[in-house]
Structure prediction request, 401 residues.
Amino acid sequence: MANAFENALRQIDRAAEAAHMQGEFLELLHYPMREVRVNIPVHMDNGSLRIFEGYRIQHNNWRGPFKGGIRYHQNVDINEVKALATWMTMKTAVVGIPMGGGKGGVTVNPKELSVGELERLTRGWTSSMKGIIGPELDVPAPDVNTTPQEMDWVASEFGHPAVVTGKTISAGGSLGRGTATADGAFEVFETLKGKLFPNGGPQTVVVQGFGNAGRIFAVIMHKKGYKVIAVSDSRGGIFNPEGLDIAALESHKDSTGGVQDFAGAKNISNEELLALDCDLLVPAAMENQFTATNVEAIKAKVIFEIANGPTTPEADDVFVRKNIPVVPDILVNAGGVTVSYFEWEQNMTNEKWTEEVVAEKMKKIMIDSANEVWARKEKYGVDLRRAAFILALERLEAAKK
Prediction:
């Protein structure tokens, strides 16, 4: 199977081909500008010394400082990180914010570390990245297994709040950041709903992933009167064709740690969840969920990608053939990086915006971006992923010039 970075490059190439784009700028986007690896010595609570490997991929900064999360995970795959950095370059360009793309982290299972060890590790990563990250160079954010707490440590160690986004409010974080990814996704959904469901709808919604973004999106859809019939998390899924009570499910998840064994719902596997007959299928978990091996079984009318990279190029081709629109990740989940940019701007100008101001500014950007992507789809007669990449490439080419 192709790795995630190869998939990202193929997405760029396919969009460029569809729009008859040429030029050196395309070749340059195939290579991250910089790949940094560092060794971080950390004294553990028992007095022993452990060395952790940290890294930062800086993909592109033509439109502004590199931007992207820091993940703590024991199975870090450098190609996956390069892909995520590349998608960040595309994502910031799609929503037109003046930033580029990066990604980084540490090879570690954070669940095995105490709070003190995590703090020393995070400060060690930050200190070893001085000269690499900075408010006008590269601005990280939380990602897998990192939280506002780690971001506060980064800002404290570096000595400037604008070096990182996703901080706690008291340390310079922005109001509205916690729900921004799901809120932004809903604005895209509302903007394109009439085009995706011309006969009204969707009647049924399935959400894969009940972490931050997927859970909040399920809550929003439920509150707006849509019937969420299935959800899943890393342990498995649940299904009730009559619809799930999402508020009760939140309490169940908080008390048991999972969504399964929820009263009135049937336990199902993640594979079964993806194959359910539904109007709107929302992958909000990990990458590579739709591949050549399972794509023929997908019965959803529309795919709405909150996760990064859930669809391989092979699966995309099948969705195009089956006339199943895929609203792509680099548009759908860009509310998070948009509000991250607002946080950075507030830190740089020493301002504090209200939640209403943040929500209003983000809403306008998401609606405008969704309409711009749809316009490229119409102009070039392509699927929405190619349309989003074409929009991003137009903006990157302009910045390069």
Q: What stands out?
A: Residues 94 and 392 are 5 Å apart (CA to CA). Residues 355-380 form the longest helix (26 residues). The chain is about 45% helix and 15% strand.
